[in-house]
Amino acid sequence: MAADPYSILGVPRGASEKDVKSAYRKLAKELHPDRNADNPKAAERFSEITRAYDLLSDKDKRARFDRGEIDIDGNPVMPFGFGQGGAGGFGGGFAGGQGGFRAQDFEGFSGQAEGIDLGDIFDGLFGGGRGGGSPFGGGGMGGGFAGARRSAAPKGANVQYRLQVGFIDAATRATQRITLGDGKTIDLKLPAGVENGTQMRLAGKGEQGPGGGGDAIVTIEVGNHPFFRREGDNIRLDLPITLDEAINGAKVRVPTVEGPVILTVAPGSSSGKTLRLKEKGFSKKSGGRGDQLVTLEVQIPAGDADLANRLEGWKDGRNLREKLGV
Q: Where in the chain is the domain with CATH 2.60.260.20?
């Protein structure tokens, strides 16, 4: 039985795009080769679910699969049952349908018997290979069979690649270079909204087959960063500031994925206050970019005698914990 992408992902045929994506992500996390280094079957299963997701995430291919036009690899399905009875013979082509012809129906005939020409029978059934048109195309049954074989020529297998991308490169969509199995290198422009697990399809860059090349499927793995954190399309940063900068206000340098910028800290700023740098985050699939959210952290120096002397006798009389009920 041909592979069924719905069964592979464990979703019903009417599953939404969101459900399909959710099912794939769940399985991909469980079966990722990096988490199953000692389990080769997990790698095979990972490749299988990726192949299923590639088809179901493509609206056109999914619709064609549902109509029975293509298989899970995107290859055309042989029409009229051809190929089911060996070498494209009539046994596979006609015996399957009710009221169809069977090989035994013609036992004893040598091509012409009692004045009956079997060639004329088939010509009449299919529009004639002798000057008449044929529903199979190609000017008759012989051309029709050859056309079916040509249309069903399989493409080569898809090839899976993993591309590790740095956090800053992902945020800025920096061009990435990947080396394919044949030794050739390709420069890739990362898509908007790129995230860990995003897949890019390179048509025809897989293994070669009678029907052409399969595809190269590149799965993106976005690395972590020492101090930036991703939150959706936004980037978060905890920014240390001194006590005097918090009390008096200051203009401080802040790192972003595109280089440092100047940020104004208002006088009297407290730890936990969050400032926003517009469009300094990740690109959005819908267009534009997210923001960078900068959370201030006031750092009090330990054992600073001068600071202690300056604050001697001073006390903040506010009850900052009143709203906590203590």
A: 156-224, 229-311
Per-residue tokens: 157: 């297998």
The model scores a pTM over 0.85: no
Instruction: Return the CATH architecture of domain 156-224.
Output: Sandwich (2.60)
Distance in angstroms (rounded) separating the CA atoms of residues 41 and 31:
9
By residue count, the chain amounts to 326
Beta bridge partners of 160: 217
Q: How far apart are CA 211 and CA 71, in angstroms?
A: 14
Chosen CATH of 229-311 out of 3.20.20.10, 3.40.50.10810, 2.60.260.20, 2.60.40.420? 2.60.260.20
Three-state secondary structure call for residue 316: coil
For 176-234, write each residue's pLDDT tens digit: 999 988 888 999 999 999 999 999 999 989 988 888 888 999 999 999 999 999 999 99
User: What are the tens digits of pLDDT across the range 32-73?
Assistant: 877 887 888 888 888 899 999 999 999 999 999 999 999 988
